[in-house]
Design goal:
By secondary structure, the chain is mainly α. It has helices at 3-24, 27-43, 45-55, 63-83, 86-109. The chain starts with a helix and ends with a helix.
Length: 110
């Protein structure tokens, strides 16, 4: 399989999904779903980061999971930058800051 074949399949899949969604939901509704998802998955890290900062207690946090999640968010951020998607860039940049705080505290306090 050539790289172009994979890109072509990805484009045709996203075009198919967009065409399907067009029939069910207006574009505004689709964007609203994405915006709500971005806000929820970004803000959900605030309580954890605040608790870790306040208590300095990180024993219950898995280092492996935290590193993997942080790496995944970095990749989502890079992807968002490449495709120029401000919702992806913004939500993942904020999430990266919050996860970095948690990861730093985990490394510092075990």
């Amino acid at each position: 399989m050539h790289a172009e074949d994979g890109a072509g399949k990805a484009n045709s899949l996203s075009e198919s999904a967009a065409a399907m969604a067009d029939g069910f939901l207006p574009v505004f509704s689709i964007e609203a779903i994405g915006a709500v998802a971005a806000v929820l998955t970004t803000l959900c890290w605030i309580p954890q980061a605040a608790r870790v900062i306040r208590t300095r207690e990180t024993r219950a946090i898995s280092l492996t999971t935290q590193v993997a999640l942080t790496c995944g968010v970095v990749l989502w951020l890079v992807y968002g930058i490449f495709i120029g998607s401000w919702p992806l860039i913004g939500s993942n940049a904020i999430t990266l800051v919050l996860l970095s705080v948690i990861l730093t505290m985990k490394l510092r306090y075990g």
